[in-house]
Amino acid sequence: MNSNKRRVFLKGTLAAGTVGIAVGAGLLAPSKLLAAWPAEAFEARGFDDALQAALGTTELSEGDVSITAPEIAENGAVVPVTVETGLSDVTEMALFAVENGSPLTSKYLLGAGAVPMFATRIKMQTSSDVVAAVKSGGQWYSAAREVKVTIGGCGG
Amino acid sequence: MSTIRARAQEAGGIVTVRALMSHPMETGVGKDSAGNLIPAHFIETVEASVDGTTVMTALWGATISRNPFFQFQFEGSAGDTLSLSWKDNKGESDSAEVTIG
């Protein structure tokens, strides 16, 4: 399964800057006039499918993307996450909680003059990698950060 | 009563917006005290614009936390008016205008 290799790759990028895999061009072009809500991407189960549906690719390059999130989240219902990047020409960003039933939490379409950062709070069902993806110059880059959750927070 | 509380502050040509929205953000798998499933009810889209130009669009799923917090930044000027609006999966919506300070 590709997902195991990808998770190892993403963890590797944290530990020791491994060379990223070349990225195919993103297939999704954000419409800034009418941002249609991507139901398929939010309903996708499993990280591979969520990446494909949300970003149009499962190949993410290592890049200057940083995630601020607690190492241990006491309350999985409210996990604060900040994503920032030093990359330029950023048009979209996305945030995944890999082990959530539906991993895509949110996507961001950057308009005129937007700074490529966002902060929000997400629900995490269980301890998991949080993955931030940033589309820069038409290619997707990502970073991952492990968040341990003591009490899962999706209300199920 | 608005469901959006937001502040927008400019420094060095960059406006930082911190917004708190009042919304249950129900996933659809939660249950009420009687054990019944609470239907999914969550903000799907948040749009921020200045002078009619969209500066940021957030597409959210139900796993954004209840009473969602959102911080973002864009190039802008103090004195301009930021419009913030959200729309949820039931078609409900709200909006607010904030003067950039």
Write a brief structural summary.
The complex is a heterodimer of chains A (156) and B (101). Chain A is an alpha+beta fold. Chain A has helices spanning 2-15, 39-43, 47-55, and strands at residues 61-62, 65-68, 72-73, 79-85, 90-97, 104-110, 114-122, 128-136, 139-149.
Protein traits:
heterodimer, A: 156 residues, alpha+beta, Immunoglobulin-like, 6-stranded mixed sheet, 3-stranded antiparallel sheet, 3 helices, globular, B: 101 residues, mainly beta, elongated
Report on this structure.
The complex is a heterodimer of chains A (156) and B (101). Chain A is α+β, with helices and mostly antiparallel strands and 156 residues long. Chain A has three helices and nine strands, in the order αααβββββββββ. Chain A has helices spanning 2-15, 39-43, 47-55; strands spanning 61-62, 65-68, 72-73, 79-85, 90-97, 104-110, 114-122, 128-136, 139-149. In chain A, strands 1, 3, 5, 6, 8 and 9 form a six-stranded mixed sheet that branches. Chain B has 101 residues and is mainly beta. Chain B is 0% helix and 53% strand. Chain B contains no helices and seven strands. Chain B is elongated and about 50 Å long. The model of chain B has no long low-confidence stretch (mean pLDDT 97). At the A-B interface, strand 4, strand 6 and strand 7 of A face strand 3, strand 4 and strand 5 of B. Strand 7 (114-122) of chain A pairs antiparallel with strand 5 of chain B, so a sheet runs across the interface.
